[in-house]
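Form 12-C: Joint structure prediction
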Amino acid sequence: MNPMNMTEKILSSKLGRKVEVGEFVVVPVDFVYAHDGTAPLSIKVMNEIKELNKVFDPSRIAFIIDHAAPSPTVSSAHVHIEMRSFAKRFGIRLYDVGNGICHQVIAESGLIRPGMVVVGADSHTVTLGALGAFATGVGSTDAAIAMTLGKLWMKVPETIKVVINGKPKPWVLGKDIILHIIGSLGVDAATYKSVEFLGESLKYLTMDSRMTLSNMSVEMGAKAGLIPVDEVTKAWFKSLGINNIRTIRPDPGAEYEDEVIFDVAGLEPQVALPPNIDNVKPVTEVEGIEIDQVFIGSCTNGRFEDFLIASRIFKGRRVKDGVRCIAIPASRSIYLRLLREGIIEILVSAGCFVAHSTCGPCIGAHLGLLGGGEVAISTSNRNFIGRMGHKDSKVFLASPATAAASAIEGKIVDPSKYLGR
Amino acid sequence: MRFRGRAWVLGDNISTDHIISGKYKFKSIGNLKDMLPYVFEEVIPGFPKRVKPNDVIVAGRNFGMGSSREHAARLLKMLGIGAVIAKSFARIFFRNAINIGLPVITADIIPRVTSTNDLIEVDLKHGVLRNLSKDIEERFKPYPEVILRLINEGGIINYIKKYGDLTW
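Section 2 - Result
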């Protein structure tokens, strides 16, 4: 058989034959999930259409209540009621308020393995590519069909090989790397395509940072953002009690539509300026911009490593007067670990508003919307006009280190001086 | 299928947040009708009141980027939009539009020459776009056969109702 990249390998294995790039296929899916922003439309479709009023396998489907949770409005409370009742009726898993953000919760659930095809009714489903799964975001109708029939139509995508070389500086995280990549390639560089992250830098990147890379691959349009299974992946699965995972990696000589190479050894922390995710500059070029709010959290940067580095900056310091710093762990298990390791105490002592796991202000649903003219620095993934509140508010995207250092000074600053430059 | 409508011209990288902001999605979640007044709120003031049936969106690159919210495609269809013509589309928006039967057409010339309010004719069957105000015609690449079948059935739900399954 010809050498294959990860996407070709996974899809060929699911279909039991070699798939060709560009062909339209109907692929069996291993897992499907939706959240309170997208499940309501899926439920509506499934309730209204008798052919779709069933599930293909309840053990492979989950609902997560994370976007507007706990419910900030009566209408979202009703959505949650509907989701609970649907979950009960069909016997599917329900991760209720407080479990955390869907992608993190599903990653930690132990239900996802390398080589799986995963469909989520959320664009950031690509996060699970860091686990070696072909994970892709879809709309509510696609999710309804996947839940009912256990399959999805798709075009076998071309793949872009993104090689990352060099050992990043200790205060440079996955977020800085992916912002740099998106800034170089542009927000539609990978539309309809898979991205495969390869290169020697991976061995320096934790699963937390890798999930940030895969997570934001969708911000260049990617259908999936895959990372090969290696010792770091295996150790992470082992920590969940899972041994013997499939070592999904690209074959030597696998074909790619394009190949881009980055050297991140000298990379400085990066910031994406509003309102474009690919308007990326080194933090030193935007230092001094005054901020009203800081958000550390989301499916992009709400993991243990993110709060660990933030806590190193916050320890013994205070959030600047007049600035709100909102810190939200991406899952209950991360929250618990942060509690046990004393990190929550550091955040709270520094003046952060720490909330239980939810998507929070990232999507402008609750817990810290911005007023007209306000400026935020956020570790989340999108800085579109009005994303986190008023249309005249601004969102700068950065790493948790940059966000924490900026919270201390009330303006955007380079975090390196707090982390042993 | 052939129809005419006025053009609403937009630039590159129009996101699903531009089409319907997440904050409205969560304000009136579960009820699409309540979201209608906020469509394109920050890019085309008064759009929901000014749009007419069969009007078309003419946009640049990467239309529909960002969130997977199917509300974006559905709300455009509910407002009567006949088609979205763009230089390129973001993947999830494209899928959602096909799945609900909203024609999405990738074109090159029409997005470059069209001004807002130009009269556009869309001929899906023959794959032709015409800007009648400027007398410019463009042929677009027909959909792949399997996708055309979904569109011809009026979306994926009707397809499944008819065939009982998703196979091709």
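Section 3 - Comments
Residues 108 and 239 of chain A are 10 Å apart (CA to CA). Chain A touches chain B through 53 residues (CB under 8 Å).
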